[in-house]
Structure prediction request, 428 residues.
Amino acid sequence: MRRVAALALPALVVLAAEPLYVLVDTAVVGHLGREELGSLAIGGQIMALAVWLGNVLAYGTTGRAARRFGAGQRGAAVAEGVQASWLAFAGGVVIMVVLEVFAGPLTRAVAGSPGPVADGAADWLRIAALGAPGLLLGTAGNGWMRGVQDTRRPLYYVLGANALSAVLCPLLVHPLGFGLAGSAIANVVAQTAAGLLFVRALLTERVPLRPHLDVIRHQLVLGRDLLLRGAAFQACFLSASAVAARFGTASLAAHLIAIQLFFFTALALDAVAIAAQSLVGAALGGEQVDEARLLARRITAAGLVSGAVFAVLVAAALATVRPWFGADDQVYAQAKTAWWWFVAMMPAAGVVFALDGVFLGAGDVRYLRNLTFVSALGGFLPGIWLAYLLDAGLRGVWVALCLFIALRLGGLLWRLTGDKWAVAGAVR
Prediction:
């Protein structure tokens, strides 16, 4: 468990750094006015897709690098990072060009109509897009360094870049008079700095830097399955918001508060999953199948304990953070109907996130993809729309979310009891 904690705690800090910076950015821009804040929200929402793609690349790279590392092939593990970095840089350039060309149409589509908010978002996005290559290089770097169980340097790199951005943002936005553009410039500087630091880490490893298309192709296949799995998650959460909105504004507001807290807890529980990826991948890479199984059981227990702790905290939060709901009694009343389902879900969610990390480390991505599809199409989506047809309110929305977690939990525990996931060797 010490090894899990040693990897999970730095990973948690890295995961939390970006959301915390977004809060700082939002607070700074909020002083400019409502239109500027709306522009930042729209531009940031579009830019978040690049962050999502980068995280997909990082998760795929960690598993492959960890298996190589466990097999005693540190050079080959770092080489996975080299190829992932080439892929990240190419993807970042493509994202940058697409956003430069289509920033206007994209922001108008999200905003719903032309106007100053959409125009401001487009201007912000065109600047922020310049940071896309650095952003994806940073996530690829996080991936391979987790794979070789080096969590210290990523911690310094990410915290340093975000601290730089947190200092630059208020200076550029207000005293230097760049306004909303200052926020985008600060983002670009931080993302580029982080990307260069991870590239420097590759250079210090003294491994060949030439691209190998065969390795990149394998990483793309892995990334495809992770993208499809992520798309299923997005469809579920968008459907949940859409159905909550149909029950009225108070239901939607209460749902958004609860779901944002769920995303925050998921972020914390993901730190355990990252530790699981690295440790299980290394054990299987070293052909220590029994060790991988033991780690999987211990990580499952750690996920259960973490989920139970968050269940207690979330239960206490309903009574102690009434200001989250403002003065609106209707929103608070609606939140209470969902809250206890949220609390009940947390122990199971802790196990699910932990086992996701186990199977990602084992390279069992296709099974994870298929299980997510089955849970979404066979459980969550029918449940969520049945809740709408039966007028079950926000309670029905969260019952469907609990069903989604329960189906995934059952599928993951069933897989854990078998042998197909524990494939030994440097590659799968």
